[in-house]
């Protein structure tokens, strides 16, 4: 017999018999991470979990991801630089229509006037 305190013995026995409380969340985080081709970090995974109806803290997600060894390595400062592109600009024909002399500012702000494009 070893000289082990009784409380320590019962603590370890209880720990072995209780199911892992984060197992479902671990599987879900792993699935989301792989579903998005390892491009999601803990912030985006937290947002995805909340969108799926799970109420989970970002610190818990980060802890679980560290335990599982999940880390987004696809984007670093060198691989994804700042880009101010916001999509295609407004069509020049639209600007010519707005600046046309027959177009009034009332066409845009009065609810009884309709905008027809």
Residue share in β-strands: under 5%
From the alpha carbons, calculate the radius of gyration and give it in angstroms.
28 Å
End-to-end CA span: 88 Å
Mean pLDDT: 81
Overall, the morphology is elongated
Would you report the number of β strands?
0
**What percent of residues adopt helix (DSSP H or I)?**
40-55%
Low-confidence stretches: none
Structure, explained:
The chain has a domain at 8-68. 49% of the residues lie in helices and 0% in strands. It has helices at residues 6-17, 23-35, 42-51, 58-68, 92-98, 106-109. It contains 6 helices and no strands. Helix 3 crosses helix 4 (58-68). The protein has 117 residues and is mainly alpha-helical.
Sequence-ordered SSE layout with sheet pairings:
Elements: H1 6-17, H2 23-35, H3 42-51, H4 58-68, H5 92-98, H6 106-109
Pfam families: HTH_21
Organism: Ruoffia halotolerans
InterPro entries: HTH-like_dom, Transposase_IS3/IS150/IS904
Based on the model shown, name its key terms:
117 residues, mainly alpha, 6 helices, 0% strand, elongated
In brief, what are we looking at here?
By secondary structure, the protein is mostly helical. It has a domain of 61 residues.
């Amino acid at each position: 017999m070893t000289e082990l305190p009784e409380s320590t013995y019962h603590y370890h026995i209880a720990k072995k018999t209780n199911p892992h409380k984060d197992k479902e969340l671990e599987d879900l985080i792993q699935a989301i991470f792989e579903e998005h081709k390892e491009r999601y970090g803990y912030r985006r995974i937290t947002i995805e979990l909340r969108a799926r109806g799970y109420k989970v803290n970002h610190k818990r997600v980060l802890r679980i991801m560290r335990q599982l060894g999940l880390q987004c390595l696809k984007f670093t400062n060198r691989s994804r630089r700042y880009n101010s592109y916001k999509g295609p600009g407004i069509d020049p024909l639209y600007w010519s229509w707005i600046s046309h002399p027959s177009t009034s500012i009332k066409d845009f702000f009065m609810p009884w006037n309709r905008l027809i494009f």
